[in-house]
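Notebook entry, structure prediction.
Reason for the run: the old model in the group folder had no record of what sequence produced it. Starting over properly, with the input documented here first.
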Amino acid sequence: MSSSAPSSPARRPHGVDWRVRFGVLALIWGFSFLFIKVGTDGFAPFQVTFGRLLFGTAVLAVALAVKRDRLPRGARTWGHLTVAAFLLNALPFSLFSYAELSIPSTLAGICNATTPLWGMLLSLVALSEDRPTRVRAAGLGIGFIGVLTVLGAWQGFSGLDVTGTALALLASASYAVGWIYVRRTLAGTGASNLALAGSQVGVATLQLAVVTPLFTTWPSSVEVLPLLAVIALGALGTGYAMLLQYGVVAEVGPTTASMVTYFIPVIATAAGVALLGEHLTWNTPVGAVIVLAGAALTQTRGPLRRQNPTRTPTAAASPAPARTPAARP
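New structure, fully documented this time:
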């Protein structure tokens, strides 16, 4: 994808100002945590994940057909896509669904914002060209303090569901691992970002199609609201939002486009409190602000040993400027 903005409105791919599309993208991804919460009221977590992947694949398949884009070729590429699908889609989507059985959607949305912090930790050993500066290291420490604030560490984590929170944090870590894997294996394949994304989500759908029947049974009755939530989660949050992201990245570049990361927990928190009646204590928003500040510092540019010219924002997410693509919920 090009990182330069177009010089005239005629080059805009959608005819709608990028700021409007940016706002819609933030809303969709922010509300995704609410959709997960509502979806798990009527379906098992694996079923929610399978549904969102299925409907997301359908949207991306239509986009591929309209653009007449070709799927990636080569067994090695498809092998890497299989791993990426697990790390960026099947695993984190399932973990968030299971996490929201026991934690509020507001907390899940904030946990999602820790992805750049995980990416910072992992880059120390996985990406030799991406060494930390003092500012980025300070950002990691600040972000860690923010996480402890959100969790209420001084209270001994009382009232906190440790398992659910750990699953949400593990999901965010999975995004970071997946993006490092993608950067090392899928750059320069010759396939378009849309083709890679559609293929990755399609493979993840197949993975859940195998796993879901083994661990779940079809519900005796299907409620309308959870079903609509799963459809919205897949068609909007996993399909359409990805197309919006591509358009914004192509127009204004990945650094500006990935700023959406910092709006996601704000919208997720507002939606959870306003629409689901979730309780919010002072430390949750304060800690979220500290987490986001730390995450922003970890994404500041520093001297690089070598510049990687190819960015491959495939199908994830979730969630930061310059270095870590926006992590999707």
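Summary: Confidence is low (pLDDT under 50) at residues 1-14, 304-324.
The old model has been moved to the deprecated folder.
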